[in-house]
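Example record

The entry below shows one chain as it appears in the dataset: sequence first, then structure tokens.
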Amino acid sequence: MEGYARLAKLPPPVLRRMKIAGWIHRTISLEPRVDVKIVPGPDLEISADADQLDQLLINLLRNAADAALVTGGSVHVSWTIFAASLHIWIDDDGPGISNSDNLFVPFFTTKPNGSGIGLALCRQIAEAHHGSLSLENRKNARGCRALLRLPIK
């Protein structure tokens, strides 16, 4: 219950200008288990809470790395602008999602030592920034794609 209480009390984002490329490069350096490849996107700044987005990206990268380690695959991160939104995607070459029904349900986990809080918190952070987060199996390759959409302002 303590984990859910922390999840439910996410403070409102404190918006400041942040550079997307620098944020992604810095955050990727925190995942040492796999070589995360970056496909650079446009030079862009948005107004966001960097601490909250750090937590979101760290969790998505950790999940992608966990999946890639299962298959000996890799992780790729990129970003682009689409329809006045920033789209950031994290692709892994892991086994993919076997059942997507409960991905964002608090306390649901498929990991032996997982808490089930990570993806629910990530979605809450994305929505607090007036964005969205989705996860789906990749269409033309093995693995999963996490797609974070944030408004450009």
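Notes for this example: The chain has one domain: 2-151. Residues 2-151 form a domain with the Heat Shock Protein 90 fold (CATH 3.30.565.10).
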